[in-house]
TrEMBL record:
Residues binding ATP, per UniProt: G16, A17, G18, K19, G20, T21, R132, G183
EC number: 2.7.4.3
Keywords from the UniProt entry: ATP-binding, Cytoplasm, Kinase, Nucleotide biosynthesis, Nucleotide-binding, Transferase
Catalysed conversion reaction: AMP + ATP = 2 ADP
Cellular compartment(s): Cytoplasm
The record's note on its domains: Consists of three domains, a large central CORE domain and two small peripheral domains, NMPbind and LID, which undergo movements during catalysis. The LID domain closes over the site of phosphoryl transfer upon ATP binding. Assembling and dissambling the active center during each catalytic cycle provides an effective means to prevent ATP hydrolysis.
One MF term in the entry's GO annotations: ATP binding
Cited function: Catalyzes the reversible transfer of the terminal phosphate group between ATP and AMP. Plays an important role in cellular energy homeostasis and in adenine nucleotide metabolism.
Coiled-coil annotated spans: none
Pfam family, one: ADK
InterPro entries recorded: Adenyl_kin_sub, Adenylat/UMP-CMP_kin, Adenylat_kinase_CS, P-loop_NTPase
Protein name according to UniProt: Adenylate kinase
């Protein structure tokens, strides 16, 4: 892949689609910084910061943290970054966040490069999340508090209501690249790479 100075990749897709896994590898292999808002928020929760205490009940319920908090977090992360070479995983998740991100990028003079959309049928999603929770537990790790069936279903519902409109938003701007998110990690990764060519 040619490496333009700036690169902004936004992963879209429902909870359980595999955004984090794919974004992680893409970041590693293409010298990009992965900005995963879920990881950032969970880190605050585990360190018990003021922000962590504020957002914990929201994460546990599978709801969205207020836009202002996310927008401030992202503004901080992008400040002083030069060149801007990032992959967003889990942000933006609402129209307000997408508009705020566009304004931030405009201030920085950096365009969106591509928005890969990982498509996975609904019936596979909750199962993947519940499996991930069980695997973590059986490996002796603490599973994510929101990787239970009930909360996973709530997260899907929130995705349909609040995040799916972003598909039209990025499609209208010519950035959307849909891909099949079902297959092995390598298969899906190769499809991701194709969307970036
Ligand atoms: P998943 O995509 O599997 O739901 P994430 O790790 O991306 O997992 O997000 C976990 C939780 O963190 C979300 O359910 C939500 O509570 C919070 N969160 C993450 N990103 C955002 C965001 N951009 N806006 C609001 N809340 C967010």
């Amino acid at each position: 892949m040619t490496q333009p100075k700036h690169k902004v990749v936004i992963f879209l897709g429902p909870p359980g689609a595999g955004k984090g896994t794919q974004a992680e590898r893409l970041a590693r292999e293409h010298q990009l910084t992965k900005i995963s808002t879920g990881d950032i928020l969970r880190d605050h929760v585990s360190r018990g910061t003021d922000l962590g205490r504020q957002v914990k009940p929201i994460l546990d319920a599978g709801q969205l943290v207020p836009d202002e908090i996310l927008i401030a977090l992202i503004r901080d992360r992008l400040a002083g970054m030069e060149p801007v070479r990032v992959i967003f995983d889990g942000f933006p998740r609402t129209l307000a966040q997408a508009q705020a991100l566009d304004m931030l990028l405009e201030e920085l003079g950096v365009p969106v490069s591509a928005v890969p959309l990982l498509e996975v049928p609904d019936e596979l999603l909750v199962q993947r999340i519940v499996d991930r929770g069980r695997q973590a537990a059986s490996a002796g790790q603490t599973p994510r508090a929101d990787d239970t069936e009930a909360v996973a279903r709530e997260r899907q519902q929130v995705y349909r209501e609040q995040t799916q409109p972003l598909i039209d938003y990025y499609s209208a701007r010519g950035h959307l690249r849909s891909l099949d998110g079902v297959g092995s990690m390598d298969e899906v990764y190769n499809r991701v790479l194709q969307t970036l060519r």
